[in-house]
Amino acid sequence: MNGSSTHPQQSHRPWTCFVIGSIGDPYADHGSPEREAYEHHLGIFEQVIAPACAKYEIIAVRADGIAHAGDINEQICRHVIESDLVIADVSGGNPNVMYELGLRHITGKPTIHIGEAGQLPFDIASIRTIRYRRTRSHLAGARREIETTLEAGLQDGFEMLTPARVLLGLQSGGEAPSAEEAGAAANDDPPGLLDDFAAIEDGLDAMTAHMEAMTRTIETIGTLSERSSTEMRDLTQANAPASARLAAVARYADSIGAPAKDLNTVAGAFAERMTTLDSGVRAALSLVESTPPDERGEETEEFLEQLISLSESAQEGLSQVIFFGTSANGLVRISRHLRAPIKDISAAVKQMTTAIACTEEWAGKARTLSRGTTV
User: Fold this and answer.
1) How remote is the C-alpha of 13 from its chain's centroid?
2) Domains delineated in the chain
3) Using CA atoms, how far apart are residues 79 and 19, in angstroms rounded to an integer?
C-alpha cells in the first residue's frame, strides 16, 4: 500500500475491512472443537477487531457476516482482494486462512496480522503480528495495538508486505522498490528478492530436514526388522514353541514402537509445514511466471530448483514409507503387540501421501518455469 492512504472521514465512503480467520461452527455441539473455535474467534472479532475499526469509522465484516446472496467462495475472494483493509487472525495456520492471506498479500493492499501467542505459523513469523492471549487485559491491549496501527497507517500509509515487494522487485528486474516507490517502506535500504524469498526457503529447508529425519527413522526400523526376521527364522528352524516366537514378536514390537511414533510425528510436521507454505509458494510461483525468464535473477532459479529437489526427495521418501506401510499391515495378523506401531506407520503413510501430492504440483510448475527445462 502506498503512502497516499486516505482517512475514511476524508473519503467519499467508509473504508471496508474484511476479517480473515477461522469461523468454526455455531451449530456444533457445546464443548466440541468446532463450537469452541466459533465462540473464540467471534469473541476476538466483537471485542478486539470490530471496536478498533469502529473508532476510525471502518466497517468490519467476517465471512459469516456477508449479507448478499451468492456463491460464498466467490464473495470471500472478492472481499479478500477488494476490501480497503484486511485483518487476518493467523492463529494455528488454518489452511483456508493461509490461502486467503496469500491471495491478499500479492495485492499490496493494507493487511494487519493478529494471532494468539504460541499459535503463530513459523512461515510468516517474519511479518509483524499483533499477539494476544485469552485474557481481558491482553485482548484490550491487542485492540489498542490495532488502533495504533490503523492510526499510523491511515496517516502515513501502510507498510507493504513481503509478497507485494517481491512482485514489484520482479517486475523491476529483480531490484526491490525504494521507500518512495513502495510508499511505505521503513527505511532506504529495502530487502532484495533473495531476502523476500527467505521465509519460504527457510520453510522448504525445514521440510527437507523432515525428509532426512524420516529417512533415518525408516533405516532404523529396517535394521530392527531385519534383526527380528533373523531371530524368527532361527526360532522356526529350532522348532521353538509359539510362546518363544510370541515373545520375539513382542520384543520386535517394543523396539520399533518409538521409531514408528517418531515417523508419524515427523510426517505430520512435514504435512503441516506444507500446508502453511502452500499459499506462499503458489503466490511466489505466480510472481515468477509473470516475469520474463531473462529478467529473473539467480535467486529465482535457485528457488525453483529447491522446489524440484524437494519433490524428488519427497517421492523417494514416500516410496520407502509406503513399502514399510504395506509390509507392516501384513504383520498385524501375527500379534496384537504390533498394532500400535503399525497404526503409527499407517498414519505416516496417509499424511505423506496427501502432502506429497502438493509438492508434486509445486515441482511441476517450477519445472515449467525453470530455464532450459523441457516439459
Assistant:
1) 35
2) 8-159 (3.40.50.450), 195-369 (1.20.1050.20)
3) 9
pLDDT tens across 48-64, in order? 999 999 999 999 999 88
Beta sheet of 16-20, edge-to-edge order: 59-62, 16-20, 85-89, 111-116, 129-132
pLDDT tops 70 at residue 29: yes
Query: Beta-carbon neighbour count of residue 50 at 10 Å?
Result: 21
Q: Which helix (H) or strand (E) is 115 found in, with range?
A: strand 111-116
Q: Are 89 and 46 in contact (CB under 8 A)?
A: no
Cell of 5: 492512504
- Find the helix or strand (DSSP H, E) in which 354 lies: helix 339-369
> Could you give the CA distance from residue 324 to residue 59 in angstroms, rounded to a whole number?
55
E strand or H helix that includes residue 262: helix 242-289
- DSSP SS3 for 114: strand
Region 99-111 average pLDDT? 83
Q: Indicate the SS3 state at residue 96.
A: helix
pTM, two decimal places: 0.46
Report helix angle 193-237 to 162-171, nearest 10.
Answer: 110
Residue 269: CB partners within 8 Å, gap ≥ 6? 210
40 neighbors 26 (Cβ within 8 angstroms): no
User: Using alpha carbons only, what angle is made at residue 365 by residues 170 and 272, rounded to the nearest 5 degrees?
Assistant: 95
- Rounded Cα distance between 238 and 224, Å, is 21
**CB 321 within 8 Å of CB 213:** no
What residues are paired with 24 via a beta bridge?
Answer: none
